[in-house]
Amino acid sequence: MEREIYHPPVLLKESIHYLNAEKGGVFVDATLGGGGHTEAILRANPENRVIAIDRDEEAIERALKRLEPYGDRIAVYHANFSQIDKVLEAEGVSEVNGVLFDLGVSHFHLRGERGFTVWQEQPLDMRMDRNQKLTAREVVNELPERKLAEIIFKYGEERFARKIAREIVRRRKTKPIETTTELAKIVEEVIPKKLWAGRKKHPAIKTFQAIRIYVNKEFEEIETAIPKAAHLLKSGGRLVVITFHSLEDRLVKNLFKKLEPEGFKIVTKKPVEPTEEEISQNPAARSAKLRVLEKL
User: Fold this and answer.
1) 52 and which of 17, 30, 32, 280 could share a cystine (Cβ 3.0–4.6 Å)?
2) In a domain, 97, yes or no
3) Are residues 43 and 81 located together in one domain of the fold?
């Protein structure tokens, strides 16, 4: 198991506020992670119950230790959040007061040993659920050049996607690309140094993001889960979604717009962003955006 890492929940006060968690009810934390948001929901009202979902068994194991004092006020499921309807069915619950999605990659993953980071040498894995078969290693070493380029451009918005894919394919002919640092080095060599030298962000971050999204089918999960979650709300119930990059935020914004004519109201015309104080305490929160949808 990866070493213990604290994962501070992002936009915590705002999440609890927009969920109306202090009024009491049954809530779904669709992305349990470190359990910070779930614990805050449970603390907001002693009558609150949380049904929590996570696709990572190790994250669940950690969170359960933290949430042990809350006893039967919490039920935790190892599942993809696109299975939210099946999870609620298993709980015997037909509708809930609120659903929270925190779509960020947790500190456990970024600082763990599954190849989510460009900064350390690790195996090319990138699976959030280790039970699934597809890994980043297969994506990098087995997909055709054209498909690789498409993934890197679509999910990473990387302008050098074709060149990166071409170089990956050229290198893997000699030997398989096995580690994060090998992949990061290839991207470094493709992107002109004048475009990334001196910047805080590594030039391979967009490529890593793209491969991670593809491996975990992140956008397909979001597209399936959000409409399901919205329709599982009680009247007045709220769906709160936190995103961390422009592609995700755009996807959520468009999904909310599509749901509006079906009996929903967009509460946040502009996304809620973290305060300067939160960013200073947790720099990872910098790019977070929170959007809220309410069932009429």
Assistant:
1) 32
2) yes
3) yes
